[in-house]
Structures are given as structure tokens and as C-alpha cells.
Amino acid sequence: MSVTEAIEAIKRFNANKPAVERNESGSLPPQVSELPSSATRHLYERIEVLEKEVTELKQIVQQLVKEKR
Q1: pLDDT tens across 46-64, in order?
Q2: How far apart are CA 29 and CA 19, in angstroms?
Q3: Quick check: pTM over 0.85?
Q4: CA–CA separation, 45 vs 50, rounded Å?
Q5: DSSP per residue over 7-49, as a string?
């Protein structure tokens, strides 16, 4: 995969990211709120790990783009 293709894939990913919907009180939707607290905590921890990995991948792609120029 070329750097250009990787950048385009990241752009498509970011454009299609689903937003976590909150109701007027600011709480999470019922399907998430009804999970046991340990499951909810695990999901949030996993989200944090994935967000960090995405950030690292973006940095790598940016570095590759700079090197290619």
C-alpha cells in the first residue's frame, strides 16, 4: 500500500467514525448504560487503547509522507 493510499484510508476512517450519542442529560444510551460496570469500564479502556494506536499510526503516516517528499 502506498503512503497516499494509507492517508486516504485514514481520511475515510475519520469521516465515517460513528459518534457516541448522548441524551439530553448527557448520559450514555441505554444499551451502554445497562452493561455491567466492569464491561463498560473494559470497553472504555479498549477505546482508549485503540485511540492511542490510531494516533501513533497517524504520526507514522505523517513521518512517511515527510520522508517521501
Answers
A1: 999 999 999 999 999 999 9
A2: 12
A3: no
A4: 9
A5: HHHHHHHHHTPPPPP--TTSPPPHHHHTS-HHHHHHHHHHHHH
